[in-house]
Structure of HTH-type transcriptional regulator TtuA:
Amino acid sequence: MPNLLDETSGLMAFVRTMEAGSFTAAARDLSTTPSAVSKSVARLEKKIGARLFLRSTRALTLTQDGQAFFERVAPLLRELDASDEAIRPEAAPSGRLRISMPGELAPLLLPRLFGTFAKDYPDLQLDIGLTDRFVNLVREDYDVVLRAGSPMQEDLIVRRLADLPMAIVASPALLELTGRPRSVDDLPGLPFARYTMDGAVQPVRLADGTTFIPRGRVDCDTGSALIQAALSGLGAAFLLRCLVADDVRAGTLVDLAPKIALPKLPLNILHAYGRTVPARVRLFCDYMAGEARTLADL
């Protein structure tokens, strides 16, 4: 087993190359030359006896060994990079904070995030990605990820922020055509704007475990699209209540199941820093915990 404690430069070169996508970009991050980065990675490959990258004139691609090595090493280097904050916790958080959150929650979360959190910590550089897919936190170089639903990536620190209620809503125009459902048994007969994930229609779930695959002619892979389809009268929608609370209050959408028990979707925040959590990540997690409670009450 090779001793990698004296290969810090090679490990940093490898991780930065993977995150940046090229030796040139990694060299800019590390304030060195592409040749030096390439040699550091080659020296590391020789030491561990495995090829980490497949090199071509156009791109670098991780080998299977390289992928496994990256997912093991990158979190360790993140902890090492953040370890100085353990001995100077009073210092104001600074540096880049890269965040991923669902696009459908962004209109509810970003105004407060920009209006309060960003102003409270002016030395932080916020890098925010909006996507409804489950990003690979380590491979895609995110500090922290907000996701509704069960975590799909192992070996991460998961903090449960809140349980968000679900709702089934439809437009008044649709209900004029179909009539309002009087019981749970009437729900499968309604046309739905259906939520899809990886091309598969997702079932509507009730709190007692009952499920049904909705029928309908509009399939959407984001909550925002479901809302627009519902507002247009193209189908009922099963989605987070906080996303449609304003529309229900305004009467543009109608809550079809106020007395039917629906499940709650967990909202989690995830990171890969282990026990040595940078102040910027810890403060963001604490801030989001308060905001999540607000979402749950909408």
